[in-house]
Structure formats: C-alpha cells, structure tokens
Write a structure and sequence with these properties.
Largest sheet: 6 strands, mixed
Helix content: 10-25%
CATH topology of the largest domain: Rossmann fold
Number of strands: 20
Shape: elongated
CATH superfamily of the largest domain: P-loop containing nucleotide triphosphate hydrolases
Order of helices and strands: EEEHEEEHHHEHEHEEHHEEEEEEEEHEE
Strand order of the largest sheet: 6-7-8-3-9-10
Length: 372
Amino acid sequence: MKDENISSSSLIPHPSSFPFIVWLDNITKRFGNVVAVDNISIGISSGEFFSILGPSGCGKTTLLRLIAGLETPDAGDIYLKGKPITSIPPYQRDVNMVFQNYALFPHRNIYENISFGLKLKKMKKSKIDSKVSDILDMVDLRGMESRKPKQLSGGQQQRIALARALVNEPSVLLLDEPLGALDLKLRKQMQLELKNLQKKLGITFIYVTHDQEEALTMSDRIAIMNGGKLEQLGTPSQVYEEPETEFVASFIGISNLFSGELTGESLLITTDGLKIKLLVNGEDRPTKTIAMVRPEKITLALDQPEDSNCNFLCGEIEDIVYLGTIVQFIVKSNDRKIVVVDKNSDRNRKLYVNQKVFASWDISSTVTIGEK
C-alpha cells in the first residue's frame, strides 16, 4: 500500500525525462480557506488537445491561470518542456491564452490587434505583415485587417482572438471557455474549426469548459475536476463508458445509477427489488457498489425479455421527449425513474405515456463504479 506521506514527486523521474510538454506536479492553490486546486498532478503531451472539464467553481480556470502564470501555486511545481516555470513571470512563458470575452483592443483595428505581440518582440515590419497575412488566411478572415472588433460578429472576434494568440507561435495555447459567449449553432461550428486548426498547427491546446459535449467532441483526453480535485483523467470514451466515480457518471452525459450490495458468488447487486448482474473482477470487489447503465443501452418492449443475459424492470412511461433524431423516454418503476434514449424509429412512435413497458439491457452494459 502506498505511503500517503510520500510525495508523488519522489516516486517519478525528473520532468525533463517526461514525454509531456506540460507537467503539473502536486499543484495546490488556496484562496483564503477555500482550496481551489487540491494536490493535482497531470501530464499533457505535445500536440494534444487536452480539456479540463467540470462545473462552475471546481477549479478548472484557476488551474489554467496557474499554467499561464497569472496565479502562483501554494504548493507544487509546474514544468514546461521539462523546465520548471513556477517562478517565471507570464510574459516569459512560452504560452498564450485566449479568454471567453476575447480581450481584443477595441480602439485598434484587426491588423493592430494581431500584430501587437510581434511588435513587442521588435520584429521587422515585413515579417509582421507576412505573419499576420498567413494567420488571417488560416482563420479565414483575410481582408478584415482594417476593421475594428465591433464591426465583426462574435464568431469573427473569436477567430481574431485565436489569431492574435497563435501568431506568436506558442508551445502551448490556453483557452478559457472561448466559445461560451457564442450561440449554440456557431459554437458547434467553432468547435470543429478549433479542432481542425489545432490538428493543422500541431500546437498543444489546453481547453477549459463546463460543456460536456464540447469536451467529448474536441478532446484527445479530458481531466474532470470537482471541488478542486481531479476526479478522472482519460479519453472521451473512457470517461463516458468507464466512469471511475459517481460524480463522473452523473456529470458526463445522462446515467441511470443503482446502489446496493453485492451478494454471494453470483455477483448480483440487489437494489430496489431489482437484481442486476455485474461483470466484476473476483478479487477485491467492494461490498457496497454503484452500478450504472447509459440510457442508449436500454431497450423498451411490451413483453418481458426472455434473454438470461438481460437485466430488466417493469414500469410505465411517464414522459416522452422528442429530440429530433432521438427520443428520450422517462420510465417510472415503483419509486425509481430511469431514462431511455433511442433512435426515432417507427417502433418507438407506437409507444405512449402511461403505457406499461419492460426496460431491458445486456449485463455487459452494466458498469460497476465502486464503493458508494
């Protein structure tokens, strides 16, 4: 068993030998009595689209500001390309940041906004002109050089903010909910554009968002935070299909959770009168367990399923929500409600509110989360 008094930094090699471009080593940040970031260690690879996801107040923006140098950790170290940068001021770090409110200079035109950082580096005008022209081509805004920010749409302003950050060719681009001010349709469009731009440039993106769908759509890996702590780190499919905590299961997408106790060698979890078969490792399995099944794994039928590899419960349809390509059913069984999501098929058009149905799913779709 690991000794809790031993720092994780004593168990790992020096960051200079890591395959990570950014390494956060046991980072803690407090604001008075509030622990905004609680002893977090994360490695982020070069060229990765890495998202930090969580609800408001979980510490994700604070973590981003610590990497940028806008906040100083109370404990731990931050490394960039194997070198410690914890005590280096923001302007000397090879990172740039894009904010939700764009932070453009309203009195300067687009050329002046984008070239601002290059001029501070005392770059020749001919080279500045070339770089500004190239980056405007990349964000598809060539010809906008003389306009002021207020003359552009929200999506165009966001592209200019990206161009201003990227023209300096940082090793890491930090993005703090950059699409939060856009409407839904434009936000989805910008998600794809951002991901394509990141792939084209090969720059490491560290992206903060509270939007689960956004993180799942864009990310190579996701760090999920809650209350200043790291709940889970993994690929989009891992955090969705294999949540490690009840919080992750509830926060990512929609989940149906059952809590109870495992009984005997049959690996059944008995809860609310329902016996759920679990695929659980025979060793060190917890007695108290939370089981999860995603709504899209459940099938509705009018007759009781005969498949022995199925879990099922009987209930009544309480509500039907039409969502275009899919339909969401709320099924009430005794005092429990479960959510079922299915394609908008002819079969489901025949189902109606207050109808008696059987909700069933394969035992392999039942995910064990762990001790409650």
